[in-house]
Amino acid sequence: MLSSDDSRFGSRLDDLDDQILAALRVDGRIGPGELATRLGVSRTTASKRLAALLHTTDVRVVGMVHPETVGVRSLAHVSIATDAPAIEVGRRLAARPEVPFVSLASGAYPLIAEVRAHDDTELSELLDVIRSLDGVESTETLVYTDLVRDVLGPTKVSVAWLDGVDRRLLSLLQLDGRMPYTALAARSSVSVGTARARTLRMIEAGVVRIGAIAAPGREGRKVDVGLGVRMRGRAGAGVERIRQLSEVRFLATTIGRYDVVATLHADTLTDVVTALEEVRSLTSVTQLHSWVHLHTLKESYRYPIETGR
């Protein structure tokens, strides 16, 4: 039987799910009480809808760390032309653990991928593997010089900042960002109080960002658009202006065809047009190219973390 809140939302339950997902992107460990207050629904409704959303395969709440924090220092954006169905090539590419992101895209390159490696030698070897995949005709690579904003926005910190307990907790949070403190404590061999304090400290410091990542197709009404930007002179001020746009979900400075690559995550194409115009208006921007991410085949940013004893 529907609660009064369920009846009020009726056919808008999908909209409520979208609002919950948006809240989870900001704070993946948000509780039903705070969620209810934020969305203006009863705690019962918030709890029920949150549980339903989390128990599907559509949404994963994960802890994300900056790659350099765990020694992953060589990253690249790869545009791929194919001489076979792009979705088949994309699935083969998505099977690689070093490839966290694969998308079917509009434009000259039907596949966009990201590669993350520990060093330049490993990155070069991975690019060789990609070029050798059946169906890959050619590739164009942008090597990142600075990961300005990653998905969910974790902060880069020195690995020396983390001890064995921190690393064990991060490994667990990468698997399940909402893992209860009791489970984190038991699996890290520490007290519940220690697990809570260490986790909150790392969240507060930005070492780990816990948020929701939607499975392919879950956010069908959202629009993801990639940007390739060429700039004159020093890129710093222009990059900072781009980073401040609310639609920017990902941003990196690069070596290659573009000086900056970014991803806009927006509600409508109108929002995308507005954001593109803001980027074009920057005096340092000389060229702006864009492509639409039509379907995400893979998005999984999980790294092996040396936990120590």
UniProtKB/TrEMBL annotation:
PROSITE patterns, alphabetized: HTH_ASNC_2
Gene Ontology CC entries for this record: cytosol
A GO MF label: sequence-specific DNA binding
Keyword Nucleotide-binding attributed: no
Keyword flag Transcription: yes
Gene3D superfamilies for this protein: 3.30.70.920, Winged helix-like DNA-binding domain superfamily/Winged helix DNA-binding domain (1.10.10.10)
Keyword entries, A-Z: DNA-binding, Transcription, Transcription regulation
Protein name per the record: AsnC family transcriptional regulator
Record-linked SMART domains: HTH_ASNC
Gene Ontology terms: biological process: response to amino acid
Domain HTH asnC-type stretches: 162-222
Superkingdom: Bacteria
